Amino acid sequence: MKHMHMLLAVLIIALFLYQSYLVLGNKERAPRAVKIGNHLLYALVLLSGAWMLFALLNANAPVQWVIAKMVLFIAAISASMKAFNPRSTPIQTKAGVFIATIAYIGIVILAYAKPENLF
C-alpha cells in the first residue's frame, strides 16, 4: 500500500506541475481529462492514506506528522482550485500555484522525515 500511495503522490505532483506550466507559461487551462484524472488521484491518495493511517493507529505509532500532512494536503488542494479556476486573475493564479507548491514541498519533507515530536 505504501508504494501505491507514493506513486499516487508522484502522479499528483506531476499533474500539478503540468497544470502550473500550462497556466503560467501558455495562459491556457488543462484539458478535461487532466482535471478528471486529478480528482481521481486525489480520491485514491486519500483512501490509501487512510488505510495506512489505520495501520499506524493499530500499531500505536506517533501520527502527528500525518495530521500535518493532511492539513497541508487540504491547503494544496484549496490553493490549486483557486490557481486553476478559469475566472481567477493572474495574481490569484500565481499566488495559488505558489501556496500549493509550498504545501507540496512540506508534504514531501514530512513524508521523508516523519518527525515523531512534531507538536
Give a description of the structure.
The protein has one domain. The radius of gyration is 15 Å and the shape is elongated. The protein is mainly alpha-helical and 119 residues long. The longest helix has 27 residues, at 32-58. It contains four helices and no strands.
Key features of this structure:
single chain, 4 helices, 119 residues, mainly alpha, elongated
Along the chain, the helix and strand elements come as HHHH
In terms of DSSP E residues, the strand content is under 5%
- The proportion of residues forming helix, as a percent range, comes to over 70%
Low confidence ranges? none
Count of helix runs:
4
Averaging pLDDT over every residue, what do you get? 91
Shape: elongated
Query: How many domain units?
Result: 1
CA-based gyration radius: 15 Å
Structural class by helix and strand composition: mainly alpha
Query: Termini, distance in Å?
Result: 27 Å
Count the strands? 0
Strand count, sense and barrel status of the largest sheet are: none
